[in-house]
Amino acid sequence: MEPRRLATGRRRQGWLLLILLLFGARLGWSLIDIQILSHDSYLEAAQRQQKKRVVIPPERGLFYDRNGVPLGVNRERYEIYLVPRHIADVDRFVERFLEIVPYEEDELREAIARGGWYVRILRGVSREIVDRLEAARLDGVGIETYRVRHYPYGSLAAELLGRVDIDNNGIAGLELQYEDALGGEPGWAIHQRDALGREYPNFAYPVDPPVDGSDVHLTLDIGLQEIVEGALDEAIEKTRAKAASIVVVDPGNGEILALANRDSGKEGSDRNRAVLDQFEPGSTFKIVTLAGLYEEGLVAPGDSLFCENGRWSNEGRVLRDVHPDGWLTVEEVIEESSNICTAKLANRLGEERMYEYARRFGFGLPTGLDYPGEPRGFLKRPDRWTPLTGASMAMGYEVMVTSIQMAMAYAAVANGGELLRPYLVRKVVDPSGDLVYQGRPQRVRRVIEPETAGLVTRALVRVVEMGTARTAQMDVLPVAGKTGTALKTGPGGYVRGSYTSSFAGFFPAADPRYVVFVRIDEPVGSFFGGAVAAPVFRRAMESSLLTETMPGAPTLVSRLRSPERVVWAVSDTSVALPSWSADSAAPVRVDPPVAREWSPMEGPSRVDEGAGVPYVVEVGREVESPETPFVPKNRVKVPDFTGLALREAIGRASRLGIELDFDGSGRVIEQAPEPGELVARGSVVEIVNP
User: Fold this and answer.
1) How far apart are the C-alpha atoms of 373 and 191, rounded to whole Å?
2) Would you call 403 a catalytic residue per the annotation?
3) Which of 185, 410, 400 is nearest to 287 (CA)?
4) Which of 356, 367, 446 is nearest to 393 (CA)?
C-alpha cells in the first residue's frame, strides 16, 4: 500500500514540476519577448499611453496698409472640452456646469455618455466664462486656447482681404493668395500623461517650436478705401443698382490704392467684382480706337467727320446716335461720344490694328494682379470677326473686360503710354524683421508714345469739361475721363433696361496721382455713366483732397491757394503736343443704301465668337450740331455759364481760351453769345452776375 501511495505522490510531484517548468519557461519567454524581441512595439504602446504629441500652431502673419495701419490681426479665443472619465457624479457636474456655461442639458449629458478622454463641446467661449470655470475647479472640464483672425475695420476691404477657415488657414482673397507667407510652419511638443489621463508639459522631451507667419504690407490706403466705399454706399442708395465696384490705382507704379465692391441690400460682398466680373465696357473702350489712330498718324484732333445727323447705315444695319450730330472733329467725337463717328474711325484703323491696340492695352489677358482667380477677359482674333465686329468693338462691345483691366488701360494713358502690372503687396516681412519680398513696379510694354498719350488726355479732358462726363468736374483741378453705358446680355440677347454704367478717369489731368474706374451694375432709373458713375469719381476725389489722402496733397493744396495760380487750363494737361493742320478737308457724304433700322435692344446675339454682336449707342447731352466743320485750335463752342459761380466760370472759359467780361461777383444769370455758338479763341463772352 505504501509503495503505491508513494508512486502516486511522485507522479503528482512530477506533474507539478512540469507545470512549474512550463510556467517558468512561458514567463521567461515573455520576458525575452518584452525586453528583446518586441521591445520596440511595447515601448511605442507605452509612450502612446503616457505621452501625447501636441501641435503648436504658429502665429498667423498680419496685414498692414501702406501706412502701417493693421488690417488683419489675431485674437485669442477659447474652447471647452470634457474628460468624461474624470466625471464621477454626472448629475452634480451637469448642475454646476450649467450654472456657468449656457448649454443644452441633453447635449451635455450625451457628450458625457460618450466617455473617453476628450470630447469638444463649445468653441468661441468668452474670457469671463473661462475665468468662472477655472474658479469653480470642476473635474472633467478642460480649456483650450486658439487664435482667430480679426479685422479691426470690420467689412472695410473685406472682399479683398478674404477670409480664413476654422483652423485659421486662408481660403479666399489675399488670405489665400499669400497663405504660404502668412501661415507660417506649425511646431510640436510632447506632453506627459499620468495614470488619470491628465496632461502636463514635460521639458525633458524634445520641442520643435513653430515658425510664425510673415507680415504682409499692402499697397492699400485704408483712408482712401473708406472714402471710396462711402462713395459706393451712396451710389447704391441713389441708383438702387444691383452692385457697384471701384478701383483706384497709382498710374506711376501700378499700386492698387483702393478697391471696393458693394451689393445692394448689404455691405460688402463675398465676390470681388472689381477683379472677377467680366462685362462689356461700352464707350470707356473708345480710347483704344482713338489711341491707335493717333499713334498710327491716321487722324489729327482737328480732322472732321460727318456724323450723319444721328442715323447711318453700316453693313446693312442702321446705327443711331440719340443726339443728331452733323460735322464733328475727332476730339468732339469723343467729347460727344458719337458712336456713328467712332464706327467710322474704327474703319480707318482697320481690323488688324484694332486688335493689336486692344492687345497692347492688355485686353484679353490677365493683368497679373496678385489675387486668386483673375480672369483674362474676352477678345476675339480678327480671323473670327464679322463685318460688324470692328464697329462693335470700337464702342466697347464684342469684348469682355474687368475693372482692373480698364483701370490699367487708362493708367497707361495717364503715365505717358506704359502698361504696368498692378499689384497689391508692397512687401512681406518675416517675424525677425527681414524683408522676404519687395513689390516693385513692373513694366509690361509700351502701348503708345508720350505724344499720343498727351493727345488722348486732352480729348478726355474735353469729355469732362464739355461732354458726357461733366458731372466728374472738380473746381480745384482738371479731370480727364470717359463715360460708358452698355446694355447687358441675357439668355436671349440684350436685355432692355439692364445696363452697365461706368466712368474711367484720372486726376489731376496733369501729373495724375489717381486713376479710377467706377462701375455701376444695373442702376434703376437714370442709367448713363455720366449720371450714375462719374459722380462717384468726383465724390471720392474731392474727399481725398480734403482729407489729404492723396500723396502730395499739401503741395496740390498750396498750389491752389497760390494767388498767381487761380485756374488751370487744358493746355496744362499736355506737354509737347504735335501740331496738326487746321485745313482738314471735310469728307464727302455718300447717301447710304436703304437698310432696316436696328437697335441693340433688338439684337439677337450673345457675346460669343460665332456671331456679330451689336452695340448700344451712348446718349450724351443733346446739342445743336454745327453745319460746317471747325477746328478747336481756332474756334470753340461757347459753354453754358448760367448758374455757375464766377470762379468756376472763369476757369471754364480759361480752359477754352476765351475771356469773360463781368462786373459783379455772384452767379451767372445771363450770357452773350448763347451757349453752343461758335466763336474764335480769344473772343470775349459777356456775362451778367450781380
Assistant:
1) 42
2) no
3) 410
4) 356
Per-residue cell: 359:
492687345
CB-based contacts of 497, cutoff 8 Å, min separation 6: none
Distance CA 241, CA 528 (A): 12
DSSP run (H or E) holding 290 = helix 286-295
Average pLDDT over residues 214-220: 96
Which helix H or strand E contains 557, and what residues bound it?
helix 553-561
Characterize the bridge pairing of strands 659-661 and 684-688. Answer: parallel
Angle at 322 between CA 609 and CA 588, to 5 degrees: 85
One-letter-per-residue 3-state SS of 387-427: CCHHHHHHCCCCEEECHHHHHHHHHHHHCCCEEECCECEEE
**b/e for 37-72, b at 16 or more Cβ within 10 A?**
eeeeeeeeeeeeeeebeeeebbebbbbbbbeeeebb
Cβ distance 457 to 582 under 8 Å? no
CA distance 578 to 389: 31
Whether 115 has a pLDDT exceeding 80, the answer reads: no
- Give the separation between CA 395 and CA 284, rounded to whole angstroms: 8
Q: How far apart are CA 443 and CA 406, in angstroms?
A: 17
The model's pLDDT over 48-94, given as tens digits with 9 standing for 90+, comes to 666 677 788 899 999 999 999 999 999 888 888 888 888 888 888 88
H runs (alpha helix) in 491-552: 529-532, 534-546
Q: Could you give phi then psi for residue 562, rounded to 5 degrees?
A: -65, 125
The sign of the torsion formed by the CA atoms of 682, 686, 688, 690 equals: positive
Query: Are 513 and 507 in contact, with CB atoms under 8 Å apart?
Result: yes
- The burial class, CB within 10 Å (0-12 / 13-18 / 19+), for 362 is buried
How far apart (Å, rounded) are the C-alpha atoms in residues 239 and 229? 15
Dist CA 466 CA 453 (whole Å): 20
Query: Do residues 684 and 659 touch, judged by C-beta distance below 8 A?
Result: yes
For residues 466 and 675, is the Cβ–Cβ distance under 8 A? no
Given 214, 269, 283, 544, the catalytic residue = 283
Dist. CA 501–CA 521, nearest whole Å: 6
Model confidence pLDDT, tens digit, residues 637-664:
788 888 887 767 776 776 666 788 877 7
Residues 6+ apart with CB under 8 A from 560: 476, 477
Determine contact, residues 306/589, Cβ cutoff 8 Å. Answer: yes
Rounded Cα distance, 623 and 154, in Å: 47
Q: Cα–Cα distances in Å, from 534 out to 139, 238, 484?
A: 66, 13, 10
Q: How many CA atoms lie within 13 A of 649 on its CB side?
A: 27
In Å, what is the CA distance from 654 to each residue of 364, 457, 481, 575, 647?
A: 41, 18, 19, 18, 10
Q: How many CB atoms lie within 10 A of CB 354?
A: 23
